[in-house]
Amino acid sequence: MNKQAISLNTTIGKVNSNILEMLSEKGRNIFFPKLGILAQSAQAKGKDINATIGEAVEDDGSSMHLPEFDPLIKIPANNAFPYAPSYGKKDLRDTWKEFIYRKNPSLKNMLISTPVATNGITHGISIAGYMFANENDNVVLSDLFWENYNLIFENGYGAKVSLFELFHNGGFNIKSFSKKINETNNNKVIILLNFPNNPSGYTPLPGEIDQIVNEVNNLAIKGKNVVVLIDDAYFGLVYEENVFKESIFIKIANLHENVLAVKLDGPTKEDYVWGFRVGFITYGIKNGTSELYEALENKTAGAIRGNISNISHLSQSLLQTLYSHENYAASKEVKYGVLKTRYKILKDLIYTRKYSEYFEPLPFNSGYFMCLKLKKGLNTEEVREQLLNEYSTGVIALGDVIRLAFSAVPQSKISDLLENLFNACRDLDKQ
């Protein structure tokens, strides 16, 4: 093992030895290289002659680039073309940390890590897998889940996805959750929570959140080391007053010294920048220290360095510019209003008695999506194909449910979407 990894592990072990047991073999072995090329380049920064870094510069020291970009990019060239740090741009990382506190006031002054930038939340989840998932480890998540989780944990890291039933009697299925997280004989339990959930569009109510947290705490009391991965991709997009408004991160990050909260979030959905590919990974644990968090950030940046080197400098700079704009908050509220209106229209229509003949909505209250189950033995894939072929309408068939992305449907066409779905079901029922 590299001596830099050993040093980081020693630092982590002194503060909380449980975290060493949570780390995967890769996680224990990874480090951010500070003794090689990067260190020598940092020492040469600002010198009269700097022949260290693998970038091309103009004779005046500015970043070399093709002049055709000049009318396209309205920020300084040095905020777009050079490599960004593997940790992410420090100003953006600090801004996002401030956002986490602002959006989650219950955190108050709780000490958490500084977010490390990832190439979107998908990459953040993959880095979390690198850091914590060994081959054959169980990763517990709901039976309604984003298919990339399989690709990341099972195909990518050889872990095993273990599913609990998300719903029971119109709400979160705490019994199934409890049973599944207690099944493993391993000392380490990895749990992935995704609220608002993709694909169901469900966020638990405050009482349900408390039940989830209580079950996690019980695991820790039993001596289990628990890694809770919190996929907050759709954070903030909640449309009902009785829904839990903050991230469950606030409840997990200071829960127990055996429970590490790993927050995976970013501007992709929150700020409508899907193609920018910027996300963040942030850590929280009871009695965590700056020294501990710095070590985890170092390992995370090392995993990124050895994976894709660094995140888009241009995207990070554009976001930092956006966040300092005086109209940012107001513009974001307008877009949220558009999604909330679509949600309200869909919710008002989908419980129409007529539609209940062929499909039943699953609980939904937030996010981009909602799901429904078909009746009368109708097949989701056959209904999907009928919609494509006869009604010029696209939906997603996921096993025995159909997912509707109301985020992508204009307000004026939501009623048409449901009518087309009803008619497609009727067509197949009458065959």
SSE series: HHHHHEHEHEEEHEHEHEHEHHHEEHEEH
- Count of the domains: 2
Strand content of the residues, in percent? 5-15%
Poorly predicted regions are none
User: What is the strand tally?
Assistant: 13
Mean pLDDT: 94
Please give the alpha-carbon distance between the first and last residues: 65 Å
At the fourth CATH level, what is the homologous superfamily of the largest domain? Type I PLP-dependent aspartate aminotransferase-like (Major domain)
CATH architecture assignment name of the largest domain: 3-Layer(aba) Sandwich
Q: Give Rg in angstroms.
A: 23 Å
Distinct helical segment count: 16
Specify the helix fraction band: 40-55%
Coarse morphology: globular
Largest sheet: 7 strands, mixed
Structural class: alpha/beta
CATH topology of the largest domain: Aspartate Aminotransferase, domain 2
Order of adjacent strands in the largest pleated sheet: 1-9-8-7-6-2-3
Oligomer: single chain
CATH class of the largest domain: Alpha Beta
Structure description:
The chain is α/β, with parallel strands linked by helices and 431 residues long. The protein folds into two domains: 3-32 and 86-323, Aspartate Aminotransferase, domain 2 (3-Layer(aba) Sandwich); 329-430, Aspartate Aminotransferase, domain 1, CATH 3.90.1150.10. The protein is built from 16 helices and 13 strands. It has helices at 3-15, 17-22, 25-29, 37-44, 90-103, 120-132, 148-156, 174-181, 206-221, 249-252, 267-270, 290-305, 313-323, 328-350, 380-391, 414-430; strands at 116-118, 138-142, 160-164, 167-168, 171-172, 188-194, 225-231, 259-265, 279-284, 359-361, 369-374, 396-398, 401-405. The strands form three sheets. The protein has a seven-stranded mixed β-sheet, sandwiched between helices. A four-stranded antiparallel β-sheet has the order 10-11-13-12, covered by helices on one side. Helix 1 runs antiparallel to helix 12 and helix 6 (120-132) crosses helix 12 (290-305). The longest helix is centred in the last third of the chain and has 23 residues, at 328-350. The chain is globular. The N and C termini lie far apart (65 Å).
